[in-house]
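User: what does the whole thing look like in 3D?
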Amino acid sequence: MTVSTTSRGFRPSRRQMLAGSAAAAGAFTFGFTIPAGAQQVGGPEINAWVVVHPDDKVVIRIARSEMGQGTLTGLAQLVAEELNCDWAKVTTEYPTPGQNIARNRVWGNFSTGGSRGIRESHDYVRKGGAAAGMMLIQAAANEWKVPAAECVAEKSVITHKASSRSIRYGQVALAAAKLEAPKDVPLKDPKDWTIAGKPLLRLDTVDKTNGKKIYGMDFKLPGMLNAAIKDCPVFGGKVKSFDAAKVKDMPGVKHVLPVGESAVTVVAETWWQAKTALDALPIEWDEGPNAEVTSESIAAWLKEGLDAPQAVVGNQVGDAKAAIASAARVVEAVYSYPFQNHACMEVMNATALYTPEKCEVWTPTQNGEAALAACAEASGLPLAKNEAYKIDLGGGFGRRGAVQDWVRQVVTIAKQIPGTPVKLIWSREEDMLHGRYHPITQCKLTGAFDKDNNLTGLHMRISGQSIVAGIFPQNIQNGRDPAVFQGLNPSGPEGSIGYGIPNLLIDHAMRNPHVPPGFWRGVNLNQNTIYLESFIDELAHAAGKDPLEFRRGLMKNHPKHLGALNAAAERAGWGKPLPEGVFRGICQTMGFGSYVAAVAEVSVNPEGKLTIHRIVAATDPGHAVNPAQIERQVEGSFVYGLSAALYGEITIKGGRVEQENFDTYEVMRLEAMPKVETVIVPSGGFWGGVGEPTIAVAAPAVLNAIFAATGKRIRSLPLKHADLRKA
Amino acid sequence: MAKLNVNGQALDVTVDGDTPLLWVIREQIGLTGTKYGCGVAQCGACTVHIDGVATRSCSLPVSAVTAEQRIVTIEGLSPDGSHPVQQAWIKHDVPQCGFCQSGMIMAAAALLQSNPKPTEADIASEMTNICRCGTYVRVKAAILDVASGGQLGRG
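Assistant: Here's the predicted 3D structure for the full assembly of 882 residues, as structure tokens:
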């Protein structure tokens, strides 16, 4: 059984309700059936990706999660393009992770992160649409007894010109569903696209304007209780004891329970009652071995790594150390980047129902299969007796992907109250204290010039945290975290460096504090681009060259990087006069398969107040599937990236996070938002992501503009700590 | 027990008087369009109108609201999504994840009601709701679009 995601939001279908009401012993369970092919409620499944109803409504199945990035719309455009269906009649739905496993993973990867939705599934989703289209045409041809090659389809209508006959998709869907899937499935040339590549409106907007859309936090089941949770605020600590008797008679309270070794929950009739009782519950923590750690102690440890003899090499050309040793002039700088919380607007939450026969979980997740795995792990039931249902996310940004800690928690709670559905909602404070934070790093950069002012060498030493070591330690090989060099690699789609420097060394001294790291929108490209692009600016300044010209001089063998840089520079009018007091900064990078660049225009008043007036951002994602949504992703990237640059900082004291809410963890609001001009320059031949790459150019463009405005080089973020008064 | 007027309906609600209005709306009344984001009146996801004024309901005890005060939630802004702000939001494709947008729309509707022709500076100072996806550019464009149509205002 699938659940509808478009237009109505997630809610149990009538069929699910009926299955539930028939369940034995009063327990409310959802039916779970595998889509059986041709005979489904509503309309037949032509193949795994496409269902066509008699009235021509087309339901397109989407495996990736919608969290605001528009993937439901973009992926549906690709399927619809090849299907030649009527876009006005397209809706989408999620298959469940359990169905994916039962059907031999016919929908591929559910993981939604790394800006991979389109760039990693464009081929098979388009083939799904094309194959379904071929089957529908074949069904019409069979009925007319003409060769399929003589029939064409457009907007869900199949026409046989020679005999002037036409028929709608909905009329042949049943027959098409019984046909064998074609083996050879040709795809259109993107230049012939009429649905994909167009700036279409999203499919899922209306219910987001009237309160009807159901998020995980809004999800309800009959008889459901609500849970609030507190995990030990010091990472690695445990619960020593809690005094349930103190709160068990408070209004609505049903249960006070341990959750694993480190957390306590109060389960009550309403969430507010649960939270109120939890706040009143005396809990003693065993804070464990990390109770003395502070931001200062972490910084000192990372600083030591900047000069440590041991480091893993990520990119090496020639002999950078020798070039530095023999340089006519050396430029050196140390940068740092703090922990950041994702701070999704919707806090972590999930609903679970456990019985000894089955465990089900409903949750906003970036990876339905990971949620299912977490459910199975916590329930202890065989995988086939678990199911996870995805709900659209109120923000994800990487927090709801690789780690499904809240799913494990809710199932651990549900298992203690079998037969009773329970919804766990974190408080904002819990969400701040138990994030999976943007990794903390420092970076020392050393550049070498010869006597003629040519850059002859660069050593970039990164010291600090590895996300992969924290989340997938099995993927660390010989001490190397490959993701740490995002944007700095010699080649490859995940982020290659755009400069040709004769002697280059980029290495990483891993230092993993106890604060858990996570994939945070933009991941390691964020700080790597700040480090490299700020320092390239420093080198340009040291060489007495224009920052754009200096970059161009190093980019002769990197035409795609250069193409994005030039596109941003040209639109911004680099070199042309600006209003008095306004200054520009420029930068570029490559990651998540795409080439991006930005120019920022800023002013700094005599009191040191920064105003960002205008951002020009260029992006080359190869193919642009929906330019209107790319614009929105780029604009959003600057909110995320500039929030981090201006305010974002999680600090540690006593082993725990100090910030608990938006009053101390500030984020960007409308008032600080600059004008953003998006330049989309798809050069074709590859597929890049658009949700993340431009985040990385937000901060360095602004930092370089601040230097132009003030002569101050800010090397430590966030900017709220910096004194920007003119030097 | 609280007596409330929500979206034009007089309601008797059994609830502790300290409970924030947000949670009464969500859990007792069952209207979930109004969101919890922070609980400390920082983010505005919980914005409702009380007698036409945009109010952050997460930090207002239900006991502070009288039976005569008219509470309007996103569900009651218009019967059919036809409010000019809702229509502008659709036209400009404003929402991304959408979670903050109920509050954003309620804040925008109240702003335009009291100031039908806001300047960009008015919008910047009045629209203080947090959006993490980053819809601010479109929020501003949609508000300016409604303002140019002159469909809202006192009178």
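In plain terms: Residues 7 and 204 of chain A are 5 Å apart (CA to CA). The longest helix of chain A spans residues 122-144.
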